[in-house]
UniProtKB/TrEMBL annotation:
Organism name: Plasticicumulans lactativorans
Pfam family, one: FA_desaturase
GO BP, sorted A to Z: lipid biosynthetic process
Name the UniProt record assigns to this protein: Fatty acid desaturase
GO cellular component labels: membrane
GO molecular function: oxidoreductase activity, acting on paired donors, with oxidation of a pair of donors resulting in the reduction of molecular oxygen to two molecules of water
TM segment ranges: 56-88, 208-232
Alphabetized UniProt keyword annotations: Membrane, Transmembrane, Transmembrane helix
Amino acid sequence: MATAFTKRDYSLIGPEAARAAEKGLVSAKWHGCEVPRKELKELMKREDAPAIRDTLIWFAALAVSGAGGVYFWGSAWCVPFFFVYGVLYGSASNSRWHECSHGTAFKTRWLNDGVYYIACFMTLYEPTVRRWMHARHHTDTIIVGRDPEIVAPRPPSFLNLFLDLFALKAGFQLIGSLSRHAAGRLTEEEKTYIPEMEWNKVFVQARIFLALFVAVIATCVLTGSLLPAMLVGLPSLYGAWLSLVFGISQHVGLAEDVLDHRLNSRTIHMNPVFRFIYWNMNYHLEHHMYPMVPYHALPALHEAIKNQCPAPYPNLFAAYREIVPTVLRQRRDPGYFVRRELPSRTAAAVEPDGAALAT
């Protein structure tokens, strides 16, 4: 679907933010698939057991792979251990902070918060900044000028996507944001989604994170070895690639400025290993439509609403068979996007700029 396109400003303080408000896209009412109230209430029930089990497995796998990397440090045998450790550290942690930010992973709040802070550190995200940034993402999903988590603004930048593959862009941004926040300053964009009452928490957390990273660097210097950084800090970079592979599959190439998650989010069937690393976020459409449903209940939610949604992608490869040519085309035709096929009884029309119209 090619359309006339004017380059858009994806910042949160530019003209697109005002345009989104004028069009009624800010904090708007989104389409929700029909789920019986009793069934939805059951799906939203929080439990400790599934997340405790999965977190213990995660920590155990980190310990075993990390120990193997340390034991074989200095030889080629450490590479497969650090490969696994890096994915568990730099990619699996991404889904953990995400689910815990919603407060749904565990029933017990301190368990949610504890895993959230650990996972944020592992993914180079400042906890309070990320919590409010992600809340905005859910409120105004892929609304240009409002959503601070749009991975690939049109036309997409291949350089930025490559840097994100190893979290290099995030790493450089973290250095700047930690320094700025430690000094007690926020950007104007950050002020649009972080309440003023939370600012002091941002500043304190930045100072703590800076101290932790300085401690890792100091340990490397004192021991004369890169090994401490291979265990803490560097895995956020060399292990982040799978997180980006998953992240791109969520929304990239789909419609902007729509009020129907079926048009801007993908659900993809994945194997059990990927689902464990990703904490079922492959059911991304379902998660966005009902974000208070815990990750372990998303497969059941998928079954409850699948007849009202576009067909899920059978695997990650199938999703990328759509994403790659779409991104390549958007380089020369930024107005192009993939229109998802909706069930006929719930179909919606989409304007050229992506705004949803009720039918």
